[in-house]
């Protein structure tokens, strides 16, 4: 049951998970949206691959444009951009 809670936390707090992963490993986190992204290349480059996907949470900040409303995974990646810095 602990594994399910951990999975639930990762799915619902992707940004926190990415930050924690970056801090603990010292490696960059590379987010990708397409299921065909070559995770092996991301690993070979010394980074952690992280599949980005949308959530049902309200978009933070300014009102999103129409493209963000149509593409929730893009909105999620926009939120995740702060991990790279």
The rounded distance between the terminal residues' Cα atoms is: 34 Å
Counting DSSP E segments of at least 2 residues, the number of strands comes to: 2
Structural class: mainly alpha
Percent range for helical residues? 40-55%
How would you characterize the overall build of this protein?
This protein has one domain. Helix content is 51%, strand content 9%. It is built from 5 helices and 2 strands; from the N terminus they run H-H-E-H-E-H-H. Strands 1-2 form a two-stranded parallel ribbon. Strand 1, helix 3 (39-44) and strand 2 (48-51) form a beta-alpha-beta unit. The longest helix has 12 residues, at 14-25. The relative contact order is 0.18. The model has no long low-confidence stretch (mean pLDDT 77).
Task: Please give a quick description of this structure.
The chain has one domain. 51% of the residues lie in helices and 9% in strands. It has helices spanning 2-12, 14-25, 39-44, 66-70, 72-80, and strands at residues 29-32, 48-51.
